[in-house]
Amino acid sequence: MSDLDGYATSLFNGRHVRLRALRDDDLPQLAQWWNEPETMVLQQHRLVPGPVGGLEEMFRNWSANKDENGVGFSVETHEGELVGHLTLWGLKPRTRIATLAIIIGSPHTGRGYGTDAVRLAVRYAFEELAANKVELQVWAFNDRAVHVYEKAGFRQEGRRRAAAYHRSAFHDEILMGILRDEYERAAG
After folding, report:
1. What is the DSSP-derived secondary structure letter of residue 81?
2. Which residue in 40, 113, 182, 188 is a FRET match for 54, CA 20 to 30 A apart?
C-alpha cells in the first residue's frame, strides 16, 4: 500500500469543510458576500461596492489554477453548501512564500468553517505547493480572524500602523505567517 493512499482525498477534506474547484453558480453568492458591508470592512481598504461582473471575474482569476504560483478554491460544507472561498497566491520559486486570503460568507461565520478551511489551505501550501511560508494580512480590529489564524498556527510577525481608514479613524494591519517547520512540528 502506498503512503499516498488517501492523500489526495484528505488534502481537500477537513473536519467541517472541503475545498473544491470554483463553479459558475458560486459566483453570484461570492460577489454578494464580497459586497456586504460587514465583509467589505474586513477585506478592503475602502468601503466601495464593486460591480458584480467585476467581482465574478476576480474570483474566476483567483481560481483559474493555471500556473504554479497559486490556487483558488471554493469552500463548502460536506453537505455541499457553499460557505466561502480561499486563495493562495504570489508563490515565487526563490522565496517559496504564499499569501493566503479567505472569505467566509456572513451566514456561515462562527461555525468553525474558517478555521478548518485555513488549516486545509496551510496543509495544501506546504504539502502540495512546496511553500516554505504562508503569510497573510489582517486588520487589527478583526479579532475573530486573528484568533482563527492563531489557532491554525500563524504567528504575528509585524504591524503596519495606521494602514486603513474607517469610521474617521486609522487602524493597524497585522502581518502574520507560519513556516513549514512550524507546521510540521504542530502536525508531528
Report:
1. -
2. 113
Please name the amino acid found at residue 163: A
- pTM recorded for the entire structure: 0.90
Rounded Cα–Cα distance for residues 121 and 99 (Å) = 10
Could you tell me which of 89, 112, 134, 122 has the C-alpha nearest to residue 11? Answer: 122
What's the rounded Cα separation, in Å, for the pair 186 and 160?
28
**Residue whose C-alpha is closest to residue 133's, from 72, 174, 177:** 177
- Which tens digit of pLDDT belongs to each residue from 76-97? 999 999 999 999 999 988 999 9
Helix, strand or coil, per DSSP, at residue 31: helix
Burial class (CB in 10 A: 0-12, 13-18, 19+), 164: middle
Residue 51 is given by DSSP the state P
